[in-house]
Amino acid sequence: MAKYNITQKKERDAAYRSLVNPMLMDELKEKIINVLLVQKRYRDKNFSAKKLAEELGTNTRYISAVVNVRFHMNYTSLVNSYRIEEAMTLLTDRRYKDHSMEDISDLVGFSNRQSFYASFYKINGSTPRDYRLEHMPPRPESEEKKPAKRGRRPKVMAEVTIGN
């Protein structure tokens, strides 16, 4: 008897996916890319599939169908993939080296650190911290610690007291 009941996950074939006209799917795909990626709406923690559908003048079933068929993932995975892609850029950018993981998570649109870490690990196989340590370029020589300038030392006046 098997210890675990593990079965291959089958992709469900939702009938509504085949009912969406392929030309309409292509058009919606371009609009989704424009709104999510070009306008960077993925940064908005509250930008749901419902809000996207309203903005595009369609319904969530169509959004779901297009995302599933054209992007081969669900809406949340699509949005998180854009967020993680930007997070990877920020984590290796010297201008953000002093930002905490919570700051980076917030900048790219995650609601909390846990979901950021989980999504990052799922996509990259490492934590954001490990990714930063592995991919942060070394400091340029111009930023290396320079020796102290030699110059005149300030005079130190010491008070000397002679015994009674």
Task: Explain how this protein is built.
- The structure is a single chain.
- The chain has helices spanning 15-19, 22-38, 49-56, 60-71, 75-91, 101-108, 113-124, 128-135.
- It has 164 residues and is mostly helical.
Query: How can the largest sheet be summarized?
Result: none
Number of helices: 8
Topology as a string of helices (H) and strands (E)? HHHHHHHH
- Distance N to C terminus: 98 Å
Number of strands: 0
Radius of gyration: 27 Å
What's the quick description here?
This protein has 164 residues and is mainly alpha-helical.
Protein topology:
Layout: H1 15-19, H2 22-38, H3 49-56, H4 60-71, H5 75-91, H6 101-108, H7 113-124, H8 128-135
Helix pairs in contact: 2-4, 3-4, 5-6, 5-7
List keywords for this structure.
8 helices, 164 residues, elongated, single chain, mainly alpha
